[in-house]
Every structure is written in structure tokens, then in C-alpha cells.
Protein 1
Amino acid sequence: MENLKLLVTSSPHIRDDDSVQKIMYSVIIALIPASLMGVYYFGFHAFLVIAASILGAIVTEGLFQKLRNKPITVSDGSAVITGLLLALNLPPGFPLWMAVVGSAVAIGLGKQVFGGLGYNPFNPALIGRAFLIASFPGAMTTWISPVDGITTATPLGLLKLQGITTDYFSLFIGRVGGCIGETSAVAILIGAAFLLYKGYIDWRIPFSYLGTVAVLMYIFGKDPVFHLLSGGLMLGAFFMATDMVTSPITKKGRWIFGIGAGIVVVVIRIWGGLPEGVSYSILLMNGLTPLLNRYTRPRIFGKVKANG
Amino acid sequence: MRKTFKGGVHPPHYKEATEHREIEKARLPQRVIIPLQQHIGAPCELIVKVGDKVKVGQKIGEGKAFVSAPVHASISGEVVSIETLPHPVGGKVLSVVIQSDGLDEVDNNIKPFGSIESLSPEELKKIIREAGIVGMGGAAFPTQVKLSPPPEKTIDTVIINGAECEPYLTADHRVMLERTEDVVFGIKVVMRAVGVSSVYIGIEDNKPDAIKKLEEAVSGEENIKVIPLRAKYPQGGEKQLIYAITGREVPSGGLPMEVGVIVQNVGTVTAIARAVKTGMPLIERVVTVTGSGVKKPRNLLARIGTPFKDLIEECGGFNGTPGKVIMGGPMMGIAQTSLEVPVIKGTSGILVLTKEEAKQYEPGPCIKCARCVDICPINLLPTRISHFSQMGMWDEAEEYNALDCIECGSCSYICPSKIPLVQRIRIAKGEILARKRKK
Ligand code: SF4
Ligand code: SF4
């Protein structure tokens, strides 16, 4: 029994078998229904946009890490998520090279300059999207109809600019104009249910976010169901506002995050110049996240509340 | 619904190997190593010298300070050396080495004390102190000190900790099954010593047989109740246990007595029972020797001072190449560098992990998934404290209540990025305390 080489590390000596990679790949799986619906409604080009965006994200991440002599971690799946999410937030007929530029910016400016996974304050996909809207406003607002393939407007645009409403069923299944992955509420909900079941997203953010939009829209005399189902709200609420890295770590913080984002969406949609508002609402709340974390710390077990 | 606390994790139980194995007496060791410090508090003063003949139960180290506990010879034989030797909790401690004479002769002074009723609370406490009894769940705080709260504190409840929430360990489980009478007897001693009428025995619901056995044993006792608890780690943590059973929150930085509660481990009350019934001090305890790294996992009744090596050999030796040997359970146990270290009063288990199981984890970046936050039983933000610790931001770590961490390790266990959170928090705690002392 002598001369044993025993490993001496500090406790605990066992670990849960979940890993960052498992979480990331689960998110990718959860996005598959929305991606498939996008390709089904908008055709092969939508698939190419997705592929180009993912590729752009992976290559950029790898290049950045290589240039900085850091370990290449593209296999953790986080870059794939950024590329995929960006693509799902792009119009179906989007030029492929622009998609690549967008995902490169998302990874480069949105994530790697801050030090990579875990350190970025803003959702990288939304940074990429904001960049594309600023650079290519025309291409970013050219929509095609899933019914006849000709250019159209999104339900929110139709309502805002021409006062035309869209029926709930079309909105629910996603047979309307819009970004590749945002139109089909049902596909998004299937993916979201999987993540909720796995415990990889917290229900508080989507619930408070969607709930705030519905309640406020109702108060202001708008159709809450229409607003929940149209635009990027569903995709944003379940897949982008819930991004772990850029949303609060406290439960109270998550409530405030969701409510705040909901208010911003309503303000933009009702009074703003844009028909949408989801991206900005999330980016804004991302910016407030460090503050929320700081001021919503839970009560420590065994500590009496101040004044009480 | 079963009682429990907020937060916590569900590591696999890994108890199958030994939970149905009866407690077996370990072979009498050839040699025992008895460290003069096996408890929290002041070390003992030596009262034997090399060459002395000692008998089983004879006191060899005297605890003079209030927070201290004497140590006794666990075998009969000769003191062959007194030197600083490796201690399973870390570092080296002055220890008495006794070579067995094989006779296992009991000290003449050891005799039963009589019935509980014939002894006053003060006498009972003295017996407990003289028997060197300390918390046997691992913390090893001198029991008699716990039983002597300052007069201004009123204790109305005693909780017996039979949760045994650490994976792999089954010593307490077996004690509850096989020494039920001693458990109940020990409880009665504690009740009389502290003058408390309300006792709860908390047991995790993954031990239904122990729950049943104890329920039967106390069915005639109005004041003793068995409380089944949800199997969840760290259910056996003092603060979590008290909260689950009484709904009281031990104040931050405070002791259970501040909410009127005293917690005793089932192993401890059995040792108390033995001491009163037979007069024999704490010289042996049940140790679960387990893990896929040993051939025949068992629950062994081992003499204090038995080298780990002996017990592992008695369990058929190593199964393949061992990777890690841990004293205690996998969540809070201490990894050992040597197998020469002895069983001490707080040794609930010896866990041997194989090479494959003893992984070294490469921490990744924090993805802010907040799992550590969600499961922290104290409601801390482990990821933030760990970050402050790494950056040397001790003030911030203190502001985020690092000192309240009970070091249960749940955060490190759950982190998908394998960040050694509790280790970093421990470092922060050390720094904060060191700076406090300087001020
Ligand atoms: S569990 Fe790990 S990765 Fe998740 S927030 Fe805590 S430290 Fe970060
Ligand atoms: S921070 Fe401390 S108390 Fe909280 S889970 Fe980690 S080790 Fe346990």
C-alpha cells in the first residue's frame, strides 16, 4: 500500500454531471423547431442565411482566440448559438455576406472584446443585429411572404403603417412575414418548453416580460394577444432575454428585468417610430443587469430584514 | 410534504454498498495513534509518558480548558512514542502511539454510573465531559460545552441529527437501526442534562427503515418525535436541520442555542449512552469504509486511533488503483495524503475513490447561470463572492456576506463550469477573518 499517489483537492469531491457544453447544446436543440419552421415557410435561402451566420460566428470566435493565443473553445456551442440566434433574427432573403458580417460583429464586438464567454455585458446576437440595422437598414427591413414568396410587410408593420390586422392563427403557426425564426410562436414555445423542463431557463423572465406587455397593451386599448404573437417578442422573451450571461442572477432581478423590458417594448411599439422594439428592450435591460444584481441581493438566511 | 429547507442539491446517494450491511467489529489494531487534538478547542495536555502501560479507557490526555475534551487509550498496551504525526484534518499534531499487548484489558476505574434518574444534570455533564465526547457528525465540538449554555439562554428543544445527508456514508443509519436503544437512552440523558422536554429526531426519508425503527422505539414517549425529512443535501447542516424542523432561523454568525435549540448527532448520543451505562469513554466509533476504490465496503466499529490503512485492508484492500482517500463524505470530506493517519472521534467514513472517479476539474468561465445562487442554502451569491476572492476584493466579499457561508460545497457541486466556488469563498473567509484580527 506504500507509495500511493493520492489526489488531494479541496471538497466537494463529486460534481454534478451537467456542463456548460450540455447547456449550450440543449439551447441549440431548443432552437431547432423555430429554425425548421423558418426554412419551411421561407425556403432554402433561409437555410443558407442560418448556415452563413453560424459559420461566421464560429470562424470569428476561433480566429479571435487564435490571435490572442487563448484555447479555442468553439466546441462549447456558445458561438453556434449566437450565430443561430442572429440568423433567426434576420429577414429570410438577407444577403449571405451581410449575415457573415453580422455574426462576425456579434462575436467580435459583442463577446470576444470583453474577454469571451461569460464576460460580455450585452447579448452578442443582439449586438450583431443592432449593427446590421444601422449599417443595412434596407436589407434588414425587406420581408417576404411565406404564402406567395413576394415582398410584404410584417404584421406589426402592416398594423402600424396601414392599419391592417393579421389573424391569430397565422401568427401562432408563423405563416406571416418576419424574421426567419421569430414568426412561429408554436415552434418557439416547443423549444422553450424543453428548456424550461431541463431547468436551463428561468420562467420568471419570459413570464414577467410577456405578462407586462400583455397587461400594458390591454390597458392602452391595444390587442394583447396580437402583440404577444407578433414580431420578435416570443423569440426574444424565451431565447434572448433569458441569456444567462446577460440577465440577472437573482430572482428579484429577473422579475425587474422582465417587467422593464416589457415596458420598453410597449413604449416603442405604441409611441416609437419603429414597429418592433424587442431587441432594444433586451439590450437596455442587459445594460442594467449589473445594477440589478447589486441591488436585488436576496436576504441572507438568518439575517433579519432591515427595519424588521 | 416532507419537511426541508430552501435550496440544496441532490447528489446521488451512493449508499447501496453499505446501507444494508450490519456494523462489524474491526480487528483489534496492533498500534493506535491518538492525537491530543480531535476536537474544536484547546488541545489536551499529555498525562502519560513513553514506556507507560495503559489500559482501555484510561485517560491519556487531559482537557483543561473549558472548550476541550480529554482523550483516552483505546487499546491496552504500552506507550511507545509521543510525537507530532499527520492528522486526518490536516497538518501534524502531537500524538500518543500505543502498541497493543493483545489483551484488550479494561481500566479498573471504568464502571457503570447507574440509572439516569440517580444522577443530577451536573453529574451527567461531568460524565460526558470526562468521557471525551465530541460531536461525531464531523464538526467534533465538545458535547458537554454544547450542553452547558450560558444561563441567559433558554433551551427548549433538542434535535437529534440522523439526516446523514452526505452521500456514501451509512454509519449513522446503521447506528439508528442496530443501536436504537442506545440512541433513545442517550436522548434521555441529554434531556435530563439540559432540562429540555421536547426532542425531535430528524431523519432523511431515504432511510425508511431507520425512521420506522425509531418511531417504534419512541412510540411510548410523548416528548420524543421522529421527523422524516426530504433527502436533500445539506439537510444535516445544523442551521438547515433546525429550520426544517422548527422553522427557526439561527441568526447569522450565531449558534443554535440562540433560537433555543441544541443539535446532537445520533452517533454522539449513542456514545453518551455508552458512557453512562458502562462508564466507557469514547474509544471507538462506527466508520463507513466505502467507495468503488475498496473491495468490500463495510460499516466497521473501529477503535479511535486505528490507522486508515488497517481498516482499508480489513475491507479487502484497494479495488484497482485508488485515486483519492477521503475522511468523511464526498461533499465536505477531507482528502488524505497518507494512509497512516488515524481514525479520530469525528471520522464518520473513509471513502476511497478510484483513479477514474478522482477527477481534477478544469474550471471554465462563469456563464452566470445562477445555479449556485439558486441552490445556496444561505442565499448567498457564490459566483460574486468567488469573483471577489479571485480579485482580492476582500471588502466586497465581506459585504456579500462571505462569512455566512457554511462551506457545504453545494455551489461547487452544481456549477456547470466546475468553478471551485467554495474553495475560493473559504479563501475569502480566511482573509476577512485575518484582517479582522489585525484591527
Ligand atoms: S453555477 Fe457556476 S457558472 Fe453558474 S453562475 Fe454560479 S459560478 Fe457561474
Ligand atoms: S456559498 Fe457556502 S453556503 Fe452557499 S452553497 Fe456555497 S458552500 Fe454552501
Note: The mean pLDDT of chain A is 92.
Protein 2
Amino acid sequence: MRHLRLVPDNTKIPFMRMRRWTFPIAALLSLASIVLFIVVGPNYGIDFLGGTVIEIQTKEQHPDLTALRSKLNALDLGDVQVQTIGDDNSILIRVGQQAGGETAQQEAIGKVRAALADQAEFRRTEIVGPRVSGELAWNGALAMIVTFLAIAIYVWFRFEWQFAVGSIISAANVVIMTFGFYVVTQHEFNLTSLAAILTTVGYSLNDTVVVYDRIRETLRKYKKIPLGDLIDRAINDMLGRTVITTMTTLIALFSLYIFGGEVIRAFTLAMIFGVCAAIFSSICVAAPVLIYFKLRPDQMDDKPEEDPSKSAANAMAKQTGKGAQKA
Amino acid sequence: MLHFTRWKMVLILGTVLIGILLAVPNLFSKETVDSWPSWVPKRQLVLGLDLQGGSYLLYQVDRQDYVQKRLRTLVGEIRKVMLEEPRIGYSGLGVQGQGVQLRIRDVSQLDLVRKRLEPLRNPLSNSILSGVAVNEFDLTVGSDGLVQMNYSEAGLAQRIRQIVDQSIEVIARRIDQLGTVEPSIQRQGEDRILVEAPGLGDPERLKSLVGQTAQLTFHLVDSSVAPGQSADQARKPGTILVPSNEPGGPTYVLEESPLLTGEDLTDAQASFDQRSNEPTVSFRLTTGGARTFGDVTQKNVNRAFAIVLDDKVISAPVIREPILGGSGQISGSFTIQTANDLAILLRAGSLPAKLTIVEERNIGPGLGADSIRAGKIASIIATAAVCAFMVATYGVLGWIANIAVLVNVILIFAIVTLLGATLSLPGIAGVIITVGTAVDSNVLIYERIREEFRQGRSAIAAIDAGFHRALGTILDANVTTLIAALVLFYLGSGPIRGFAVTHAIGVATTIFTAFTFTRLLVAMWVRWRRPTTISL
């Protein structure tokens, strides 16, 4: 019986020779994302800016948006955005943060309710006050930083410091590029987006560690081959797995994107982008970093006289392997 | 790698079975599950507000408002103790920032001042264990006669803690009166209260019920001011100006010290006025309250008294005859619902301080139902598509992978149900990403087996070695992801947390499944088919 094979056996793609191109491309994309972030900036949602979002369903099938807009603008609430989502009669109304603290936000939503009460059903209202929005932003950033540190420590213990640096640079690259994606598409950036980015960090690390694991193994096996060739070999060996896993993840994400409803559409789109970025960066960033940081195969030696701390890490890796065997 | 002792097999299959049993109640409606015999696990998933609709309200104690009110009371208390014999002369008594200050005229009286003010520092009992008494106020007496009583940091913190505790109780009593919702009311941080009420159609009513301070007081109206006279000009010391509840209504001049407060009430009910047939709220007073009320009304026939709720006059009826029975009526253009709500507020008691909404999210039940339907459809399609892809790629072993992933998802739901964690929409996303990545562990194993087989090992040796090598990688990769998910769980809030819960559980079950269940299935397959070649 013949099975589907997306990647032929024994590929010999010279990824590390390609690094002259791919590494600068990755750097460029990151830089472009940062520049865009500063110059254009993302479309922050109310989670970070404060303000109000109201989702309504109008009773009539094709509501007159212009009339609705002018009705809301007459309430004198500053910038009010009105847009349809999904069906024709589902409408999202965004009201910017009102000056005058927490109670002012409540008054604003009261006005909108009063104005629309007879023509629409209120499906969702969210109000984030000025105090909370700042905290949410800070907590999100904190979560990201702590995650990075924890991961770096874990990888450093399990591998070598070069691998820790590589996985963090690679993950940071994914985060920055996904930020860039949000800036370019101007999808609303809110708490859920932050969850999307952090997931891609998880995915990126997962992928990077799988590749690193193979690189480490290859390093131990072949001590005389140049590092670049070794890494190429490891990546090519894993190519079948990488493609299949990416496919299944993308299949899951695309079904979520198409059938999962409006609420998580932007979330999944960002994840789809993030997963692609993660694959790209674990091959084109995480691996070359090892070369740039001069990882030497002999660091992978198990001989205890070289460096006790490193061999301890190796011994730990072995032990885990044995533990697994027993289990 | 492929050998399993019998008890190990039993243990693995037993775990899976327990998982299935725990997850099964979620397939049925609540009514069906309730009718099951008592020994069957009945726990069901707690759906997040985004899935079932409801209100999420984050309240914060308004410190400034509370402190200002408390300091105004302190001013009154200080004034009183200064008037005791021998009287102490002072000037400039007033609220200054976070405290009260005054200047003593005669510096030789400073010791006496200290003695009189000491009790007003108001020791608050701290925790029973530490036994350290914290004073609410710090007292500083300057040699130049300047006396300051400032809120101590520890005192304020403790006060806020007490306010939050008390508020939680009051809010719980109020929502309880609504009867229909099962709310969760929790402290958040030091001065916040999170109220989550699922499946409620009318968030505005909930808000008005939860957020109202509902401080009720009865005051005599100052009769020396003629109606229509500019209230401001006629005001005497010891009186306060209180606006009417109705827009455009008059401002009343009331005697500052209340006759009665909400604490003097024992019961309140919505009722109808016998003459006008309008909705009113009737109340009953405590014995002490009834006595006071009787005395006052006896002395003040034909004067008006005002019923004040949260600094607004609801009504100001004129006392026609002494009210001695200890019960009365509040009327004031109520609807049946507002009368009912006021009765609930009076029964449940007042909040010790003003609460402000700092975050509010309301999801209509319709939207929640739409989301859950979409989530279900997407999950089914995602699972089916991934399964089809795996079978196309790996044949029989693809089926094994699919069973493993299915068991994985069942285990996630079992654990979420067991923990009583809330399943939200991002949580479903977490499950789906697990489906995507759980496959990765199988892919790692199978690709490794292929590789070993191509290098010339026998089929069974290749499978053995494949598992051996792949499991280390699976552990490393998943532990890394697990760390990320755990950090998100501890630091995140709202949607991030919802996602982190299922994702973290998903990673853990993925590791478990790869190490045990998948391996067992492959071992059983090997024992059954005894493959000599591997078609992967």
C-alpha cells in the first residue's frame, strides 16, 4: 500500500548555504516589523486602550449604516466606529475611551443603549476602563518576558547556552514578525491576539527544540563533519516530520478560521501566520545562530574530563532517555 | 520498549477508561445527567461566559470616595471630643489630603489633646494569629500646636480589605434574591471584586442591583426654609443639601444627622399603595428603630421627613400622625421592578463604600450559543481532516495515531471537567491546537521508525528504536511548550488564561499518551500482525 509522501527521502537542501539569504531576510522582516510598529502602530483594541465595544443585531435585515453612524455621532462621544461583521445585520460599534474616568464610560454606553434600544438587540458589550487597560497591557508584556526567561533557562540546562540563545532569538523573531502582521493587516490587537502570539511562541519553541534535538544527536554521531553540513543533515532528516506536522496544524487552524465563527477569526489568522513564521525561523534563524555563536561539536562530547557541568547536562539527557525506556 | 507487563497494560487502559467516564457526562444535557444513579460521575464542564452568555463585571472600591467620607466623620468626632470639659480651643479643623488637621490654641494642652485623640486612632484588630493591632490613623502632635491625624497605610489597607469582604457578602445576598443565576463573586487583587453571572438576559439590571451603594437614611427636613426659597442662602450649620431623585426636582435642606439608617430596617417588600395603587416599598423597623421613629414622628407631626438613598431624596412625605407600629412605606414613582429592586437592596444591606465598574463584559446568550455551535463544527471538521491526512500518510499506523489523538482530546476534557476549570472559546482553540500538535508526537515516532527501518533494521527492531529515540525529543519539545503554557496560566488573565488551561493540559496529556497509550497500541498491533516490513 502506498502512502502519501509530501517530502522525498534523502533530501539534501543546503539550508546553511542559504543562510546568506535567509538570515538577512529574517532580520529584515523583523526590522521592518519594528519600524512599522513604531511608524504605523497596531490597531490596539479596548483591552489596551480602554473604551467600549458593542455588538448589536438590528431588527431590520439591511440597516442603514450611514443613518446609524450619524445617530451615534450626534451623541457626542468622540470617535465612534461602525462596521458590519458576518451577516448584514450584525454590527460592531466601537466607542473610544471617554475622558472622566470609569463612570464616564458607563454613561457613554448608557447613551448608546438609549439611542438604539428600539431598533437592535444587544449581543455583546465590553467596557474596559482606563485603569484596567494599562494593567492588562503590562501583564501581557510581563507574561511574555517571563515565558522567554523560563524557556531560556530550560533549554540552557537541557542543551548548551548557544541553543538557549538560538531558541530565544528564533522565538523573538516569530513574536516580532507576528506583531508586524498585526500592524500590516490592522487587525485589532487585543488580549486574544496576545494569546495568539504566545501560542505561536509555544509552537515555535516546540519546533525549534525538535530541530535542536536532532542537531545535538547528529553532532554526537559525526564529529569530523563541518558544523554547517551537520546542521543541514539534521534539518533534512527532520524535513518529513516538519512538513507533516505543519500540515496537520495548519489543517486544524484553517478549519477553525473557516468554520470557527467571527469571534476567533482574527485570532486564528494570526496563528496561521505565526505557525508559518515559526517554521521559517526555526530553520532559518535558530539553526544559523548556532554557527554564528560558534557551537563546536566537541562541546557535545560525553567525556567527563572536559567540562563537568556540561557533561552533567548530557548525563541528565541520557537519564531521561533511559527513564523513558523504563516507563 | 514494546514489552508491557500485564499490570502496566491494565493501568494504562484503566486511566483511559476513567478519562472516558469523566468526559462522558458532557455529551448529555444537565437534566439527563441529573437522573443518573448517584455512583456515576456527573460533573460537567463549566462553560465560560463567552460560550453561554452572561456578565463579567470587575468592581473596584472607590478609595478616594471612601477616605473622604471617613475623614468627614472623623472631623465630627474630633469636634465632639474637643468640646468635652475642659474644652480645648482649636482652629482650622478640616480634611487635608489623606488626613485631618487642626491647630491647638493653647500649647500647654497638648498632652490632653493627645489623650483625647488617642481613642480616635481606632485600633483595628489585625489577624488573630499575629495579634498586632493596627491603628487606622497615625497621630502626630507638633510642639507648635499643629495636630494631624492621617490615614495609616496599614490601616487603610486593612479597611479596604474589610470593605471588600463585606461588599462580597452584600453582593452575594443581593444576587441571591434574583433567584435565577449562579454567580461567582470573588476578590481580585486588594481592592477589586469580580462578579460573574452566567446566562443573564439583562446586564443593566444586574449592574444597578450590584453597584448601588444603597445607603438609606431618614432625615427631618429643615422646616425653617420655605419651599421655593433658594436653599443655599437659607442653610444653617448642621444641615445638608440633598438633591431630589427626580431630574429637575427640588433640592432639599435636611438636618445632617439621620433619624434612622438602613441598619434599623429588618425587612423590606415591594407592595402596592392601598389608595393610589402605585408600587411602593414597605419596610419594617427593628425594635430600637421603631421606638426612635415613634418618638420622632410624635414630636414632629406636620413636618416633612426625607427618605434619602445614596445622597438623593426619594420622597419627602409629611408626617400626618405618629408612626408607632414600626413599619412604613416609601413611595416615589416606582415601577413594579424598581420597587422590587429597592426592596432587594434594602433587605440585603448597603455596601460599605462606593464601587466603580472598571471592566465590564456582557455576552448575550444568543452570541454564546452561536460561538459554541461554530466551535463544535470547527472542532469536528478539524479532527476529521487531520485524521484523514494521517491515514493517507501512515495507513494503519495513522489510525493508531488517530485513536491516540482522540483519547488525548477525551483526556483533556476529562481533566478540565475534573478540575472544574472553565472552558472558554480560546480554550477550544487550545484544544484544537493540541489536536494539531499532538499529532506531532506520533509523526516524530513514525518518521523515526521509517528512518530506522530504511537503515536496515528489522521491522520490530526499527519500531523499538523509533520509540526509544523519539520519546526524548517529544519530552523536550513538549516540556518547553508546557513551561510557556504554565507561565501564561499564572500570569495571564481572561482569554489568555482560558487558552493556557486547555493548552497546558493538552501538552501534558500529549506526553502521557505518547509514552503510554500510543506505545501500547503499537505494541499490541506488532504482537498481532508480526510485521516483517513497514509501509510508512
Note: Confidence is low (pLDDT under 50) at residues 303-327 of chain A.
